[in-house]
Amino acid sequence: MTDYYRPLVQREAPLHAFRLAGGPLWFERVERIRRGGYRKVMPAEDIPEDVLKRLTAERPPICGVEMHRPSIMGILNVTPDSFSDGGQHAGREVADAESMMKDGADILDIGGESTRPGANFVPPDEEVARVVPVIKALTAKGIGPLSVDTRKAAVAKAALAAGAGLFNDVTALMFDPESLKVAAESGAVVCLMHSIKTPKDMQENPRYSNILLDVYDVLDERIQACVAAGIPRSRIIVDPGIGFGKTQAHNLTLLRGIALFHSLGCAILLGVSRKSIIGQIANEPRPERRFAGSITLALEGLNQGVQMLRVHDIAETKQAIALWSALNEAP
User: What does the alpha-carbon distance between residue 313 and residue 304 come to, in Å, rounded to a whole number?
Assistant: First the structure.
């Protein structure tokens, strides 16, 4: 029977505590979880050595961005129909990118196809025409590092050649059979996000036997596929995919238990900015008015050791991180 280990993260560092993933937080106990409802809290020093090593190993930098402190991935969508900022950056991509970096983004994520629920498929050529000129323009001005948000190998290949350093795939390199090869041969960092089906139909009655463990198992399998293809864990970051083929209850369970994913041995990215879960719970239909909810969920992620936040509201998130970091500095 498979055991899963979720570190019970804390700010203090008592005698028998271990530093979590080389970051500012600690853990001295873990919750051992099994399918069927078994859950037991136990001392961290009693868990298998390989699991403890993955939980404590310092995460290497992602595209030069240090992972021992909270970091920000700024969202720069060059789409006409993204749920929050579709069309917002048209004709001013470079200026907006400069502003986002000035506000405190550590890396920018460039997307040319909306992955909101119900979104339509964008042909690869059209997606390339949207993202590659922007990436080339930003690279020419020394703006970066850059990530490309795509599920298509041809788009990723063109974007990485143009200057992007991270292949951020909402399907964990499963949508396109060539994606794993492109990622391996490029030497780029990859972000493996969990999702089901396609944006068009992913919210049609999603079902899981155990949402937390099911998502963990998929990401574990995809990490192993990457490693087998020649992509080391040091070039992998994982994302549980909040809002992608999940109900509100699924999303809340993932957010409460997100520390489990540290035992995969990779840095964790959390994308909750302006998402529908905030609108549902806070009764706010306008994405641009969901900033407070976005920060609340982001801080919950930081409290569980998440290393990178993917956000729209960069300056405000940077301020929240500054205060969070001050509270979590060693006395």
Answer: 21
Instruction: Give pLDDT, residue 117.
Output: 72
The catalytic residue among 59, 157, 275, 290 is 275
**Alpha-carbon gap, residue 83 to 160, rounded angstroms:** 25
Which of 35, 58, 81 is the C-terminal boundary of a domain?
A: 58
Q: What is the pLDDT of residue 73?
A: 98
Do both 176 and 309 map to the same domain?
yes
Question: What is the rounded distance in angstroms from the CA atom of residue 276 to the CA atom of residue 281?
Answer: 9
- Helix locations, the chain, DSSP H: 49-56, 93-103, 124-140, 153-162, 179-186, 211-228, 248-256, 276-282, 291-303, 314-327
Here the tokens at position 252 are 């809340």
Task: Identify which of 218, 121, 129, 110 has the alpha carbon closest to the alpha carbon of residue 167.
Answer: 110
Contact 64, 108 (CB under 8 A): no
- Cβ pair 90, 126 in contact under 8 A: no
32 and 82 housed in the same domain: no
Report the chain's terminal Cα–Cα distance, integer Å: 42
Question: Does 29 lie in the same domain as 116?
Answer: no
> Cα(307)–Cα(197) distance, rounded to whole angstroms?
27
pLDDT at 215: 98
Check if 246 is active-site.
no
Q: Range of 252's domain?
A: 59-327
Single out the residue of 127, 131, 126 nearest to residue 147, CA to CA: 131
Instruction: State both tokens at 17.
Output: 């505590």
Which pair of structure tokens corresponds to residue 129?
């025409």
* Sign of the alpha-carbon torsion through 14, 19, 25, 26: negative
Determine the Cα–Cα distance for residues 126 and 3; give it in Å rounded to an integer: 45
Q: Which residue ranges of the chain lie beneath pLDDT 50?
A: 81-84, 86
Distance CA 70, CA 240 (A): 17
Catalytic residue check, 130: no
d(CA 224, CA 247): 27
